[in-house]
């Protein structure tokens, strides 16, 4: 199986850990590294303002500040330890994959890069919605490991919102094939993990849900390559689009968790 990874420039877990994992069972032909321009952040700000309104957007900003001041350092320590663990299990091949650095995964250079490499599978670990002319290039499709159980928790930070809504049983990463919608493509698996709801951040929880299930995710990708994988039926289930975390919801989640710690370990569904 020939694969390509799409990830952000500052995503160490993807560039080192996930890339090494992909190379362990497939021909990792290339990595598209997205270095977004500053105006992309401003576009996201305007989009979130339209979604949430100014009052709620202040709640979003307050959480960002709180995260940087009180949570980011601890999460970085966890990430360092997890990268060390993954490096002992997976390592990049001696012949490094080709790299395309671009401002957008939908850019002309990204498209040309994918067409030249002609991968079987692309794993997209990026925030930008891919255009059909990009996600349709791989022979077997483009897949995401979405942080949230779809279709109930589509778009952004699904693990956070499941915990904020007191639904720890829906804290999971979804393996789905990208289509033209927002996390509406065929679902091939749900993957969760053991977590400490009272002390872990949503960033750590959604990362754990990926790295704790790499063997199961690999098997599912191999089934997709073999043509034996069947999508999970999701018709008739609730579907909702979520946005950026709020500080008020974060405090509500933690209060609930400290009254009785949520710990979940869900098996992968296939």
Task: Supply the key terms.
single chain, 270 residues, alpha/beta, Rossmann fold, 7-stranded mixed β-sheet, two-stranded parallel sheet, disordered C terminus
Question: Could you explain how this protein is built, in words?
Answer:
The chain is an alpha/beta fold. The protein has a single domain, classed as Formyl transferase, N-terminal domain (Rossmann fold). It has helices at 12-25, 38-89, 108-117, 132-135, 158-164, 202-211, 214-226, 247-259; strands spanning 2-8, 27-34, 98-102, 121-125, 142-147, 154-155, 173-177, 187-191, 241-242. The strands form two sheets. A seven-stranded mixed sheet has the order 3-2-1-4-5-7-8, with helices on both faces. The model is unreliable at 262-270 (pLDDT under 50).
Topology:
Layout: E1 2-8, H1 12-25, E2 27-34, H2 38-89, E3 98-102, H3 108-117, E4 121-125, H4 132-135, E5 142-147, E6 154-155, H5 158-164, E7 173-177, E8 187-191, H6 202-211, H7 214-226, E9 241-242, H8 247-259
Parallel strand pairs: 1-2, 1-4, 2-3, 4-5, 6-9
Antiparallel strand pairs: 5-7, 7-8
Which range does the strand content fall in?
15-25%
User: What class, by secondary structure content?
Assistant: alpha/beta
Using the coordinates above, name the CATH class.
Answer: Alpha Beta
Any idea of the CATH topology? Rossmann fold
The residue-averaged pLDDT reads: 93
Q: End-to-end span in angstroms?
A: 20 Å
| Helix percentage range | 40-55%
Number of helices: 8
Shape: globular
The gyration radius over C-alpha positions equals: 18 Å
What string gives the helices and strands in order?
EHEHEHEHEEHEEHHEH
As residue ranges, the low-confidence spans are 262-270
The CATH superfamily bears the name Formyl transferase, N-terminal domain
For the largest sheet, list the strands in their spatial order.
3-2-1-4-5-7-8
CATH architecture assignment: 3-Layer(aba) Sandwich
Number of strands: 9
Main sheet properties: 7 strands, mixed
Return the domain count: 1
């Amino acid at each position: 199986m020939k694969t390509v990874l799409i990830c952000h420039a500052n995503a160490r877990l993807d560039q080192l850990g996930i890339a090494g994992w992909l190379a362990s069972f497939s021909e990792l032909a290339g990595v598209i590294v997205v270095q977004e321009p500053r105006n992309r952040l401003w576009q996201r700000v305007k989009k979130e303002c339209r979604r949430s309104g100014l009052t709620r957007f202040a709640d979003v900003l307050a959480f960002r500040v709180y995260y940087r001041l009180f949570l980011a350092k601890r999460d970085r320590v966890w990430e360092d330890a997890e990268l060390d663990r993954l490096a002992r299990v997976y390592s990049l091949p001696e012949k490094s994959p080709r790299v395309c650095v671009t401002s957008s995964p939908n850019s002309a250079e990204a498209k040309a890069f994918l067409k030249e490499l002609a991968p079987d599978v692309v794993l997209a670990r990026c925030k930008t919605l891919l255009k059909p002319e990009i996600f349709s290039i791989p022979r077997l499709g483009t897949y995401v490991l979405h942080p949230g159980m779809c279709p109930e928790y589509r778009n952004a930070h699904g693990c956070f919102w499941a915990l904020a809504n007191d639904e720890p049983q829906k804290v999971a990463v979804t393996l789905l094939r990208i289509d033209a919608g927002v996390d509406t493509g065929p679902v091939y698996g749900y993957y969760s993990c053991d977590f400490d709801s009272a002390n872990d951040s949503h960033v750590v929880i959604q990362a754990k849900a990926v790295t704790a299930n790499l063997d199961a995710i690999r098997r599912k990708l191999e089934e997709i390559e073999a043509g034996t994988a069947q999508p999970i039926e999701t018709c008739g289930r609730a579907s909702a689009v979520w946005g950026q975390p709020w500080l008020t919801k974060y405090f509500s989640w933690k209060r609930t968790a400290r009254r009785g710690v949520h710990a979940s370990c869900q098996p992968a569904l296939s």
